[in-house]
Amino acid sequence: MAASAASGNGGTTAGAASSTLADRWRIDPDAPLPTFDLPSAQAFAATELPAQERPLLAFLCTSGLPFRAESARLLAGSSIEGLLGLIAYGIVDWPAEQARVPALLYERPKGDPVCELFGKRIVPGCGDEPIRALLRPIGRGLRVLQRLNIAHRGIRPDNLWFEDAANRSAVAGCALSGPAGWDQPSPFEPLERAMAERAGRGEGDTAADIYALGVTVLWLVTGPPAWSFLPDAEVLSARVGKGSYSALTQGVRLPEWLVEPLRCMLADDPDQRWTLRELQAWLDGMPLPMHISPPLPSAEGPFVFSGKPFIGLRELAMAMARDVPAAAQAIRGGSLQTWLRHGLRDPIRAKRLDELVEGATYNAAEIGGGDDALVARALLLIDETAPIRYRDAAFSVDGFGPVLAKRVLDGESVQTLAEAIAIGLPKLCLMQSRGSGAAKVERARRLVALSGYLRDPRLGFGVERCLYVANPGLPCLSLSIATCGVVELADLLRELEAAAAAATDDKLLDRHVAGFIAARIGNEAAAAIPLSGLSDPDAATSATAMLALLAFVQARHPDAPRPRLARWIGRKLPAAIASIRHRPTRVALEREAARKIALGDLCGLHVLISDPEPRRRDHSGFRTATAAWKRAEMEIAALDRLQAQRQLAAQARGARVAAIIGLSGACVSIGATILLALR
């Protein structure tokens, strides 16, 4: 086993002349190794600290696309025969980019590039032993990758190296610095993946590696073929029309011993291509397994499309993908189905196309009945192994994530990709595929989840969540931390803390941050967090949901307090605190919240704000006070209703008293008068 892997979290620093990975490995930006450069990464010298004795090789990912983080996680720290050893990976501060970028650290090969030396070892009469000796360790390495459910996806002549100084043992180089197949020239990709756009070729499987190994063998044995100087589109058209073996070996004089191995490794039908067991049998010198390919169906006559005759379905499908209106007319009019029934004698495929047309006609509103959708579905029925081709997109089912990332990074619209998911093209593609049941079920489950996210416009869902679920190696693209290279959830709060000082109230926790967190914590954990509250129009609800999300991350990665981030979220909490009606309780809550904010304790702040007991007591006390207030109001109203009656009674009583007083006074006056008169 090699040294322990760095997981890409924290611990990266930058010096004036170097960068370090996990405080253990030094990468020298002033020591480039252009011989090892890849289309998706630049190579630099690296050493282990503090000894600096063993020369290492670091690839700095520069493509701007997600690297293969899941595969790197499984391979880091392991030593596999036939493969360049991945020591560690992570995010480093890189002066040339003025940003943090992914870095992959490998053992540096001690030998020379295979493509520069191998041709000199081929001498007349040597047979196939040199090539078998060269490829045996690589074949064993592919077997280990197969057990890990990983495809290499980077086998080509300029990515093979001699591991030892004596140039005896070969290893396959790095293929993790970009999306699977991104670094591969189109002829080194199997036909079903070469037809996809570069970012959408997909993770693939061992069958794709065996095909690439076959093209590599052809190149090493015969030298650079003529097609290596032609445009990829021209070579692809030739492969579609003639088959990959015929197109790539045309004009090449093959040794007799190489004909059958190449025919089996370059088979365009993955089911007819050699398996690893058969490849290993050849490499071990055992008799070649007999492969009898079933004859391709021959048409009685060509199908004329856009003025050109076509015999093969794959070539016809490619032409239809380039001319959707004409293809839709041929399918809706039934001429294609007629040719399939009578010319190609394929009534089953014709019936499926008829059903497709009928469904598109009568259920247009439900499944999408436009020409683009109809032709995209039809192409999957005509050529079952081809990628999804819809409008301007072409991608394998397992290549959806990198295609989505490419468009987002390039600032392009993702509407086409969202529509392709919504109208069920990946599902139809999976139904047509011949893969294992478990793999198909898992891919179908992921597609259902992605489809649900795409339809939900709320924060924590939408395109952003799809982006990070489908691309574990993609850094968070939020504008506030876009240059920080945050790939792991453990790094997120540290960078948000640094950005919080200058963040406005509505720019720090945006759609990308919410989608990144939701994708990285997993569906079960995300279901326990009130993500729906992030988009709630009520300020108190949305602020509490934001706090819950950040507190969850801090609870999972409690590396340090986050006072600036706490102050940022604290500015949004007055609405939540104001919902407490009891003034002494509210004042006490504000005082305690200020203390938690000063400590940078997001978890404690969340517990304080979301604690149901004070709110239950406040609600209970409010109900009691409300009831008392209502009773007082009723008493006052009752008093108001009796006031008029009391006034009348008082007036009557006053009149009686006044009359009595007046009468009494009169009597006294009369009595006094009488007494005076008698005297």
CATH class descriptor name of the largest domain: Mainly Alpha
Radius of gyration equals 38 Å
General form = elongated
Low-confidence stretches: 1-16
User: How many beta-strand segments?
Assistant: 13
Number of helices: 29
CATH architectural name of the largest domain: Orthogonal Bundle
Number of domains: 4
Fourth CATH level, the homologous superfamily of the largest domain: Transferase(Phosphotransferase) domain 1
Beta-strand portion reads 5-15%
The largest pleated sheet is described as: 7 strands, antiparallel
Provide the residue-averaged pLDDT.
Answer: 86
The CATH topology of the largest domain comes to: Transferase(Phosphotransferase), domain 1
Structural class: alpha+beta
Task: Report, as a whole number of angstroms, the end-to-end distance.
Answer: 145 Å
If strands are numbered along the chain, what order do they take across the biggest sheet?
1-2-3-4-5-7-6
